[in-house]
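Journal club side-thread
Mid-discussion, someone asked how the predicted structure for our own chain would compare to the paper's figures. Pasting it here so we can look after the session.
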Amino acid sequence: MKRRTRLRKMGLPADPKPVPRKTEPSFYDLAVSAVKELEKTGLPNSWANNLDFLEDCRRYGVSHTVNCMRLHGLLPSRLKDMLGSPWL
């Protein structure tokens, strides 16, 4: 029995659609959204050029990363290394 016929007999579509993969935002998109968040908090916009900052934005989210910078003065990855904090 052919594959397509077997799939139809099982009630499945003959040609299943591929599941779209979630694409990660580019560093440019992260930098644009980071500048907007940094302007709200009063932190310098130069952080949006830092690759460690942008990598943390990709991993933890822009607003969480900016809040860590505002509250603690450290990137979330540095806080996690120092404190071993499970909430990050």
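Post-session note: The first helix runs from residue 3 to 9.
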